[in-house]
Amino acid sequence: MKCYIMTRATKAGAAAKSPLGFCLHDHDACVRDALVAAETRCAAGGLRLTPVRRRVLELLLQEHRALGAYAILDRLREEGFGSQPPVAYRALDFLVANGLAHKIERLNAFIACVHPDEGHTPAFMICRLCDAVAETYSSPARGALGDAARASGFRIERTVVEAEGLCPTCITEAEG
Amino acid sequence: MKCYIMTRATKAGAAAKSPLGFCLHDHDACVRDALVAAETRCAAGGLRLTPVRRRVLELLLQEHRALGAYAILDRLREEGFGSQPPVAYRALDFLVANGLAHKIERLNAFIACVHPDEGHTPAFMICRLCDAVAETYSSPARGALGDAARASGFRIERTVVEAEGLCPTCITEAEG
DNA sequence: CGTCTCCATGTGATTTTATAACACTTATCG
DNA sequence: CGATAAGTGTTATAAAATCACATGGAGACG
Fold it and tell me: If 0-12 CB within 10 Å is exposed, 13-18 middle and 19+ buried, where does residue A104 land?
């Protein structure tokens, strides 16, 4: 499954075969495939993708944007799930712990993972105008950061890499 | 001015000449020099390093750890400055906006900048046991992230790079 | 089948982090 | 000096996250 970010307009169509990032794609298929992949992974790993958890993942997948826990909670409440913050946070914790979603620290918000592969090091590109978020890969430990860590004896366990800027659509709109 | 992170014990002494990261150094000199550098920079740039702002910077410099806004506020209150959140947040905003401090997104906390040079791209190593934070450099735009950005037409304006893991001291204590 | 246990869900209450809105003071500059 | 912009202070409130505890359901096991 490949899933590319689509900003703004939701034109269904074949996804361009460019590297991960901002580009058009068939969003319905994207969501469907990701849910199937998540179910498969959970079944294989003995994890319980319960209704709330599944629904939260679905909500995240439907937007290629980061959603705050309270935005999710509002939806859950409307749909008859619990109405208190822990309901949303617990589902999100589960998804994040199992690599099905990521937290965008910069935004205090969450996004579905579009890279079903295990053990990747995600990086994000966040558009400061339209809030679209694209997930991609990084290997920060290979560059200057890794050098500094090795030199000083720091053991990296996890990295947060988030780039803020302008997505292609917003660049065009802003500059003509 | 060079300023290295000192975790735990505060042994004064010559700083090891290793790359930026975790290592011993003369902390008093580190703080003093950083304050002088900040004053110089502010004077040169027409910025007003007022008493609250200066004091907040000093508080941050005294610890090589990230401090939450409310921890800072507590100190300010004790010292007769204003006692409400905006007092701390405004000083922190000023310091961050002018490159004298950084926000550690992962921790929702702030740390003094130890790299007086303009326009650097900071990266942080955060120890999950003792909370020490070391600042170093990164060039995320040169690696996989930069490739993805260029390929998809995303314009990076700012990056957040934070590595979480174990500092040398905590590795030793945990395993030694 | 019962029941024990673990995990998940639900709720109320609280803590932590951050901002809005407005009054007052001080610095700067014509 | 007076106008204006910037800084400080306060009250109030919003937003994000966690704690503590009760309830309920799925599997494991006798």
Answer: buried
